[in-house]
Design a protein that fits this description.
Largest sheet: 4 strands, parallel
Number of helices: 3
CATH superfamily: NAD(P)-binding Rossmann-like Domain
Radius of gyration: 13 Å
Number of domains: 1
Number of strands: 6
Structural class: alpha/beta
Strand order of the largest sheet: 5-2-1-6
Order of helices and strands: EHEHEEEEH
Shape: globular
Helix content: 25-40%
CATH architecture: 3-Layer(aba) Sandwich
Length: 98
């Protein structure tokens, strides 16, 4: 299953890491320093109750190609960023917003 996670903040990174850890093919749409960090070091999740650091193999991208296809898209951004993200998704991608 190919999964796209849009948003590489704390919640998006947590979902991306857990999905990748369960064997899913995960791509993380990120930007700026976070994008470069993931590309260089992989996705790192640190446990808050210990010093454990897990690294997950995710592909980090800055934008979507027109031929990109995913089985599932998880949009995890701030509410104020939703309108800017929607045009990036394919017209055939169903979007559910709370």
């Amino acid at each position: 299953m190919r999964v796209l996670v849009v948003g590489a903040g704390a919640i998006g990174s947590l979902f991306a890491g857990k999905l990748a850890g369960s064997g899913k093919d995960v791509t993380l749409l990120a930007r700026g320093d976070r994008l470069e960090s993931i590309r260089k070091n992989g996705l790192e999740l640190r446990e808050s109750t210990s010093s454990t650091v897990e690294r997950f193999p995710v592909k980090a991208i800055a934008s979507l190609a027109t031929d990109d296809r995913y089985d599932f898209v998880l949009v995890v951004v701030q509410r104020t960023q939703i309108r800017a993200i929607l045009p990036l998704l394919s017209a055939s991608t169903p979007v559910f917003e709370k």
